Amino acid sequence: xxxxxxSFPVHRFEIRGGEPREAYxxxxxxRYVEVLDEPSTPLIARRLEGLAALPAEGHRGEVSLELAPWxxxxxxxxxxxxxxxxxxxxxxxxLYSQERAQGTxxxxxxxxDGAGPYERIGTQDITAHVDFSALVAEGEAAGLRPLALxxxxxxxxxxxxxxxxxxxxxxxxxxQERDANRMGMLDLVRxxxxxxxx
Length: 198
Description:
By secondary structure, this protein is an alpha+beta fold. It contains seven helices and nine strands. It has helices at 43-49, 67-77, 92-95, 132-141, 152-158, 161-166, 175-189, and strands at residues 11-16, 19-28, 31-37, 60-63, 89-90, 106-109, 112-113, 125-127, 130-131. α2 (67-77) packs across α4. The radius of gyration is 20 Å and the shape is globular.
């Protein structure tokens, strides 16, 4: 899967009084507003219990509860083989760190950053970074065995990326085609860009 898991629905939360409170959508004077209240499921708090430290007061974040059903479906589809997931995300302690105290929810409208999740409803993409610790745990619970968590750059380099790039000269391409292909390939391994995918 490529950028699939980051599109799964998430429950937004904020730490209040040392406990996660879920963000719900309400309407006030015709405008959408967030209201914090009791979580709709104890699974939100359970996901945070495994962290080295509970996020600080006021920390906002997201929890996807769709990871388990997806991992179960992937495991059921495989008699043998591998599942490779490429996405934006972090391991849990990094995902819920102070660096991401406002969460990772992002919106995109026509390939540019959107204004927020309650604007342009139904016409923009909404995404949140993947909790790879939870994804690995749910995969294991479904019978899958994790082999590695790495970056796209390291993964492609391990598959011979540098040899492929060097072979461009022998492909009978024009200089412009070689340059375009070389730049495209380098974009795939640039850590500040696509190469930073996990």
